Amino acid sequence: MTAPLFSVITVTFNASSILRRTLDSICGQTYEGIEYIIVDGASSDDTLACLARYPRIAHIISEPDEGLYHAMNKGLQLATGDYVWFINAGDSLPSNDAIAHLAASLHTENLPDIIYGETMMTDDNGRILGARRLRTPDVLTWKSFRMGMRVSHQAFIVRRELAPPFDLRYRFSSDIDWCIRSLCVARHVYNTRTVLSHYLDGGLSTRRRRASLLERFRIQCRYYGLLPTLFRHLWFAVRFSLARSRNYTPLLLACFLFSFGVQGQKAEKLLDQAAVRYAHSGGVSVSFAVHSRTVAGEESFAGRLRMKGERFTLSTPDLHIWYDGRNQWTYWVRNEEVMVSEPTREEIQVTNPALIFRHRKGYTATLAGETLTHDGRPAYDIDLVPHRKPRAGDPSLITIRIEKATSLPSHIVLRTSSSELTTIRLQSFKAPLTPSDTSFTFDPSFCPAATVIDLR
Questions:
Q1: How far apart are CA 14 and CA 44, in angstroms?
Q2: DSSP character string of 43-108
């Protein structure tokens, strides 16, 4: 088999000031098997004059488009190479021999379906800022994107016949959907273990960053299920999405705070009483362990929640959250990022037990019977059933198991119509607590190397 042909696609719009770096990088490659495609969104600056100086460009389109991913789809339609590789305006390759070295590392008789590697971040002047905080995994599969964009699309090269079009329902994060769909059909994925691209770190506006995070959460729900994604991101997911679209999350929080007698009480009154009891407790702390089973596999993690009024802190292996009643800090351990936001009343009310009863009208609570806990203690089961037929991935049944002797919840089990099962085990309740107000505020010394991103 001959050496592979790489269709390198650059999308640009009014970016002539940074485009030259990209053009020099691609057109200066020593490797000859390159089909270079430029998709311009009808720029009004001197982009076209700049492009005219590079005869190595195979195709140029300059016309209005419907956004970044619409333009990238145009590039896919023009490509004829063995691989498609998106290097957008401002991005570049690490050296003039980058593609030559990459091609030499491939076994041409058995070309991989997907090639991936590392990405270095650069500033406007081309100076290297360092590697992406989220390192690429040694073995990349479609499941690798559960915790975010594990590989930059500038370092993600796909066989052209396998590459799907970008889903235009997503305006900001269609690249993560594209990577997942490509990996779903790939059989041979090759990790180069080298830097494949330099990515211009231009940053996102607050509005676009929030929209991108919300889209990524929706995409992850689509592929990995709502419940596993919810519990993997926990209050982050609630903060950016579920506050406006789901009404069962407050019930889970109420279960964390179930510290009262159930004998002689009707099930439909229990959650209201939990909110009242909590309001007078002064503060609650509880440890939890989550185990999820979906078609994508099984996953477990543990954490601890501490609450006082509307304020709370939450810790899991992947993230830590502080909310002081106005500001919220979310620290992503793997990304080394702290996102600061100021939730609206509508968004934060899902974490306020005093407001739980307002969200419970979509469910019927019934005493399902008596049972035993995992360690053999007598307990009650309370079922929460939605009034309406749940959407795909939403719980069709929530069961709360409460120990008779302590009146504390020991388990919460969530089931969906697609046979997904999530079990939350609660233990080590402590109440009342009198935590200091500063314990609900982010302390920079907790993660001094983290980058703080202010979304307020």
A1: 6
A2: -SSSHHHHHTT-TTEEEEEES--SSHHHHHHHHHHH--SSEEEE--TT-B-SSTTHHHHHHHHS-G
**Residue 52, C-beta contacts closer than 8 angstroms, at least 6 positions apart:** none
CATH 2.40.128.280 holds for 209-454: no
* pLDDT for position 453: 73
Q: How far apart, in whole angstroms, are the C-alpha atoms of residue 157 and residue 141?
A: 14
Q: Is 275 helix (H, G, I), strand (E, B) or coil?
A: helix
pLDDT digit string, tens, across residues 162-216: 999 999 988 888 999 999 999 989 999 999 999 999 988 764 444 466 677 777 7
Helix (H, G, I), strand (E, B) or coil at 326: coil
- Please, how many CA atoms are within 13 Å of residue 109, restricted to the half-sphere of its CB? 0
Task: Give the DSSP per-residue string, 366-413.
Answer: EEEEEEE-TTS-EEEEEEEEESSPPPTTSEEEEEEEEETTT--EEEEE
Q: What is the average pLDDT across 435-439?
A: 82
Distant-in-sequence, close-in-space partners of 224: CB < 8 Å, separation ≥ 6: 143, 146, 232, 294, 296
User: Which residues contact residue 160 at a Cβ distance below 8 angstroms, ignoring those fewer than 6 apart?
Assistant: 7, 76, 79, 80, 81, 82, 83, 84
Helices (H), 106-247: 174-185, 206-224, 226-233, 235-237, 243-245
Q: Say if residue 44's pLDDT is above 60.
A: yes
Side chain identity at 51, as an amino acid letter?
Answer: L
Task: Give dist(CA 110, CA 183) in Å, integer.
Answer: 17
As beta bridge partners, residue 63 has none
Superfamily for the 6-203 domain: Spore Coat Polysaccharide Biosynthesis Protein SpsA; Chain A (3.90.550.10)
246 contacts 416 by C-beta, under 8 angstroms: no
End-to-end CA distance of the chain: 55
Q: What's the rounded Cα separation, in Å, for the pair 380 and 400?
A: 8
Report field, pTM of the whole predicted structure over 0.70: no
Question: At 75, which helix (H) or strand (E)?
Answer: helix 68-78
Distance between CA atoms of 406 and 250, rounded to whole angstroms? 22
Q: Where in the chain are the domains?
A: 6-203, 209-454
Backbone angles phi, psi at 17, to 5 degrees: -65, -25
CA angle 293, 410, 366 (to 5 degrees): 90
Residue with tokens 């052209």: 160
